[in-house]
Amino acid sequence: MGSVKSQATAARAARLSAPIGTEPSTVSGVVLLLPGGEAVSARKPSALRTSGMRGMGRHLARAGRAEGLAAHLVHYRNRGWNGSEADLSQDAHWAAEEVRRRYGDVPVCLAGVDMGARAALHASGHPAVNSVFALAPWLPEDDVAAAPEPVKQLHGRTVLIVHGTNDERTDPELSFRLAARAKKAHRDIARFEVHSDGHRLAQHRSEVFALAADFVLGTLFGHAFSRPVQDALAAPPPLGLRMPLAAGFGKSLDKARRK
Hints:
By secondary structure, the protein is α/β, with parallel strands linked by helices.
């Protein structure tokens, strides 16, 4: 007889939500939203964690509607990463494959938070994925006895990591170290720091949403990135990996576009 965890996983299947917002008549790009999870758990995913990503999904769907952007939330089989099984990463990979089955050869951005950001980074090697937006990623502590977090799969993808400097749940220094290691081989990686904000980035929600929209429209549809994102991608470490996210980022972006 299998373990309780394997039985629970077998009883559930990963799935995509209905399109968030109004689905475009022709889908030209997809953003997959990956909520947070737990290190070890066979329990059903938390509805609270899932709902927390819908706000970003609605913002992105509105921003990209004219371009044909579809936004879907990924519902995991269970809420745990579960060690070497990396269940959330497997579900993210399945979701990218499901996009290809539904919509054909369209570019995909994986946008995750917390454990979902780790899943997005891991699953970025899927051929449909061209970019990753990783918000406050949960990463394991450095351990000389364990293999480091993989970065080879990031080759050819554009990656943006965002982390609050006062995050007490996921260590921002770990995401900096991963970005620095990845940047040595993969140049299209940037990281923004949100000074004085915590894990949920609640104080800078509008700035984070605006940054996400700027990144998704740029990577999926070829829009010009805002100047801060351009600078972060072009700057050598550590400058481009400790780029401050300025208060009012979205408002300043709107003013620049109206000029």
